[in-house]
Write a structure and sequence with these properties.
Layout lengths: L1 H29 L1 H7 L5 H26 L17 H28 L8 H33 L5 H30 L2
Protein name: cytochrome-c oxidase
GO molecular function: cytochrome-c oxidase activity
Main location: membrane
Amino acid sequence: MAAVGTIVWLSSELMFFAGLFAIFFTLRAVRPDLWAMETPKLNVPFATVNTLILVISSVWCQIGVHRAEQGRGSRIGGIFDLRGWGMREWYVLTYIFGGIFVAGQVFEYAELTMHGVTLYSNAYGSAFYMTTGFHAIHVAGGLVAFLLIIGRSFTARTYTHRQATGAIVTSYYWHFVDVVWIALWATIYLLR
């Protein structure tokens, strides 16, 4: 039931982000001059590296899900033995990469603000900060979920299917956030 509920909820989130995409495509159609003026200020190589960080975090997350499905909540063996890592270690790595992604977004906001692109500068700035900002809020929500799942792994004596379900549902959300970002990145940074 938790998985089905999560998928239904993510469907509503998809509609929310569809509205944000509509803003960008409408802006591009109605004000191509504004689009042409503001997009050169974007740091595409930096955003691409930040995107790769988020994509890699999804890989770590999925490896953690596989460990959770195997009933391995934490590592067996040394910390540097990656084959012995459990869900907890892979989710900690996912959390770190997600945090780096959010820090990258904050850095990019600071850089764009210095170039005059702010939430209130024009329609492009408003659309940019709304779409990327709402996505960053969703990433932060995913990071909180990872902390909860990691914390629960410390309280379980044996890692059962019930604990694995929480890890799996969290991965659904994280992969959703990742796919949405890839689409946002392509819309915002690649469409010139």
